Amino acid sequence: MQHFLVQNWRKSLEVEQRRSAHTVRAYVTTAERFCAFLADYEGQAVDADALRALTPATLRAFLARRRGEGLGNASAARELSAIRAFLRFVGGKEATVPLVKGPRVTKGVPRPVSPDEVVALAEDVAENRREAWEGARDWAVLMLLYGAGLRIGEAMGLNGDVLPLGETLRVTGKRDKTRIVPLLPQVREAIDAYVALSPYPPDKGAPLFRGRRGGALSPALVRRAVQGARGRLGLSERTTPHALRHSFATHLLAGGADLRSLQELLGHASLASTQIYTAVDAAHLLDVYRNAHPRAES
User: Fold this and answer.
1) 27 counts as catalytic
2) Same domain assignment for residues 122 and 249
3) What global pTM score does this model have?
4) 10 is catalytic
5) 284 catalytic, yes or no?
6) Which of 22, 111, 179, 268 is the catalytic position?
7) Are residues 149 and 267 in the same domain?
8) Is residue 241 part of a domain?
9) Which of 210, 245, 246, 251 is catalytic?
10) Within a domain: residue 120?
C-alpha cells in the first residue's frame, strides 16, 4: 500500500501538477522517507488510513529524527511542506493535516547563505511556478548565482550564444568588463534542463532566460520569487539573489581560494571590493567558535 500511495503521488506531481523533475524527485524521496519512518515508528504497515490518522506528535518525532541526522532549518521546513502536500493528496478533500510549526531561522548580522539553504530556496522557488519550464528556469538562474557567482543582471544578460555550454562561461559584467567563470556540472545540467523544457528556442542573440510571454526575464520577477520562498522557509530577509553571490565568494574563501583568484571570478575592478569577504568569513568562523567551544560564553 505504501508503495502504491507514493507512486500515485509521483503521477499526480508529474501529470496533474506538472512539477519539475527536480521537485518530483525531492517530494517523492521525502514521502518515501516519511512512510519508512512511520512504519518503523508505529510498527505497522502504512496505508491511507494511517496517514489520515497522523498526529502532530508523530510528525514532530519525524522532524526531530531528521534534525538529529543533521538536516538544517531550511531543509526541515521544505520536508515539512512536502509532507503536508503528500498528506493532503492522500486525504483528499476531507484531509486534515496536523498543525506543526516549522523551524525558523533566527535573524542577525549578515551571514552567507548555507549550501543547504541555497538548495532549499531554489527548490521552493522552482516548485511554486505554474509551469515546469518556469521552475526549471528559476532553478537554473539561482544555481548560476550561487554556483558561478554571477550578479543577477549578468545572468539575465546571457543569450543563446553561450550554448552549447562548456566547462567555462564568458560573462559580461559592470562597465562591459568580461571574465571567464568555471561552470560546475550541476549548473550546466540545470541550464540544459531549462533549455530542453523552454517553449522558446535559444536563438543566437536572444535572451537565454525568458519570461512567460517570451521576453527577457525580469530580475524583479526573480527577486519577488526569492522573497516569497524565504518567507515560506523562515529564512532571513537578507536572503536575496545577490546574497547567493556573496555565499559563493565566502564559501570559496573558506575553502582556501586566494583573494586575487576570487577577485577575477567575481569581476571586481578593485581588490578592496573582494577583501570584504575576509571579514564575512571571520564572522562565520566566530559563530562556529561560539557555538562549539564550551568556554565561549564565559
Assistant:
1) no
2) yes
3) 0.58
4) no
5) no
6) 268
7) yes
8) yes
9) 245
10) yes
279: domain CATH number is: 1.10.443.10
* pLDDT confidence of residue 215: 92
**Domains identified in the chain, total number:** 2
From 11, 104, 174, 290, active-site residue: 174
Could you confirm whether 277 is annotated as catalytic?
A: yes
DSSP track, 217-251? PPHHHHHHHHHHHHHHHT--TT--HHHHHHHHHHH
Q: Are residues 88 and 121 in the same domain?
A: no
Specify whether 107 is catalytic. no
Q: What is the CATH number of the domain that holds 52?
A: 1.10.150
**pLDDT of the residue at 179:** 83
Average pLDDT by stretches of 10, the chain with 298 residues:
80 80 82 89 81 83 84 78 85 66 49 76 85 91 87 89 87 79 86 93 91 92 90 81 78 62 62 55 53 49
Q: Domain containing 145: what range? A: 115-285
Is residue 104 in a domain? no
Shared domain for 124 and 262, answered yes or no, is yes
66, 151, 210, 230: which one is catalytic? 151
